[in-house]
Amino acid sequence: DAKTTQPPSMDCAEGRAANLPCNHSTISGNEYVYWYRQIHSQGPQYIIHGLKNNETNEMASLIITEDRKSSTLILPHATLRDTAVYYCIVRVYTLTQGGSEKLVFGKGTKLTVNP
Amino acid sequence: DTEVTQTPKHLVMGMTNKKSLKCEQHMGHRAMYWYKQKAKKPPELMFVYSYEKLSINESVPSRFSPECPNSSLLNLHLHALQPEDSALYLCASSQDPRGSYEQYFGPGTRLTVT
User: B65-104 pLDDT, tens per residue?
Assistant: First the structure.
């Protein structure tokens, strides 16, 4: 399974952009990159995902390098409520039982947004 | 409604007990998942159900027994657990296991084995 590498922790000032990097150098051509976050002891929350192209939604932007070996999650205006552990995940698709996916979580980045 | 519910929120059980965790979603999702999360660690996949059939078992010990009675409900039956099985158990669902859909996670059941 493809693995991801993230910095263990990052700090960001409130109102500034938070840029969270992720390396996934062993990713295969059909594997998606997903980002989730987990606020203390809650269930993970989906943020965004992509395959090759950059993606943007109301929460964040995802920038994937052309060789797909790394990506960056951008929170454009971080708030205190964005303090959480952010997981960069490679989705693995298997052909068992007609096909199903699994998310292989890395260790994540603990983002702290400071006032 | 984009909610996955899990009951109970907390569970304390002895090593000889039998208990069950319950997960429910009413989003019409056809894939459901069980994850285990130890303190300060990322979630680890345990089981995947695809269209009510078990499609992935990540070599989970047989003292954990999953069940998917229908497309909305997922159970995890627990028997003869060990103290090291104490963890947060997370359930998730996604629209279709064959597409690139996001997983919706429940709040989890915090299990303590004494």
Answer: 999 999 999 999 999 999 999 999 999 999 988 778 899 9
Nearest CA in chain B to A97: B55
Q: Exposure string (b/e) for A18-30, b if CB count within 10 Å is 16 or more?
A: bebebbbeebeee
Give B17→chain A minimum CA distance, Å: 25
Measured between CB atoms, does A51 come within 8 Å of chain B?
yes
Contact of B42 with A105, CB cutoff 8 Å = yes
**pLDDT given at position A97:** 58
Give the end-to-end CA distance of chain A in Å, rounded to a whole number: 38
Q: pLDDT category, A15, cuts 50, 70, 90?
A: very high
Instruction: Give pLDDT tens digits for A84-108.
Output: 999 999 988 776 655 677 888 889 9
What residue of A is the nearest CA neighbor of B5? A43
Contact A101 B44 (CB under 8 A): no
Q: Write out the two tokens for B77.
A: 């039956």
CA–CA dist A48, A63 (Å, integer): 11
